[in-house]
Design brief:
By secondary structure, the chain is α/β, with parallel strands linked by helices. Helices cover 31% and strands 27% of the residues.
Length: 271
């Protein structure tokens, strides 16, 4: 018995809009379609004109959905491209890049994989969500929730919870105590969206005990877990989200990040 690949399928709510998108973004064009006699469904198959691979778009008349997000199901399409930079620029212009992590996702993977790095301590700023936080407070990121789909690459049958290495967390807490430096330990949100159309979404994260929002720890912790390495995020509160009056000035950023930096350096001496 031998199986051969046939196609991928995506359900869509707006068939015409989807056809236009896939042709403009990826050069896929309709090669055939099938329509139900009673109008209950339409199947459209798209191809690239080069390979036999096809993408099936399914439109269902009675599929009642008020919205359709990436989180509904785990799907992906993999494309090779002869000019990545041009493709990236085009998709950025179209506004259809849902997630990318060009810094920590790449750098931590390369450090772990290619340079035999065993421990990565990330230091950086974080926007505070917890009302009890003050500017300059230091947070040890025990866990890193995320609103991105970075973890989908692992093909897990659930939701992976990225956490730091306990040994590094314990060392950071002990080192901070020796220095007389108070720290907060808890969960942070790693988000790839710096500016949001709907900032009220942070209220839901705050209700779940999220201390603050940054952009790197989730990808760092996932890479560390996948590669069996160790990682920890040490973060300084630079502003309080939702309160424009509570944010570090440029001058304060030059002096109020020192505690985080010296903590990481003192930890490194013990590793």
């Amino acid at each position: 018995m031998k199986f051969t690949f046939a196609h991928n399928n995506f359900n869509v709510t707006d068939l015409d809009k989807s056809l236009k998108f896939y042709e403009e973004a990826l050069g896929l064009k309709e090669v055939r379609r099938k329509e139900a006699a009673d109008g209950s469904f339409i199947l459209v198959y798209l191809g690239d004109g080069v390979t036999p691979h096809q993408l099936e778009l399914t439109w269902l008349r009675d599929w009642e959905k008020d919205h359709y997000d990436l989180g509904d199901n785990e799907f992906h399409l993999a494309f090779r491209v002869d000019d990545f930079e041009a493709a990236h620029a085009k998709h950025k212009e179209m506004g259809c890049i849902c997630f990318e992590n060009p810094s920590m996702g790449i750098y931590s993977y390369e450090l772990f994989s290619f340079y035999d790095v065993e421990n990565i301590i990330r230091i950086g700023s974080i926007g505070g969500l917890d009302a009890s936080l003050n500017l300059g407070d230091v947070i040890l990121a025990q866990g890193a929730s995320t609103d991105s789909n970075y973890g989908s690459q692992y093909g897990l049958g659930g939701t992976f919870a990225p956490i730091c290495d306990y040994g590094l967390l314990k060392l950071a807490d002990q080192t901070a105590e020796k220095k007389g430096l108070p720290v907060r330990v808890g969960n942070v949100l790693a988000s790839d969206m710096f500016y949001r159309a709907n900032p009220e979404v942070f209220d839901k994260w705050r209700a779940m005990g999220i201390l603050g929002v940054e952009m790197e720890c989730s990808a760092l912790y996932m890479n560390a877990a996948y590669l069996h390495k160790k990682a920890l995020g040490i973060l300084t509160v630079s502003d309080i989200i939702g309160d424009d009056s509570r944010a570090m000035t440029a001058e304060e950023r030059q002096t109020m990040l020192t505690n985080m930096i010296t903590l990481a350096l003192d930890m490194a001496k013990e590793l």
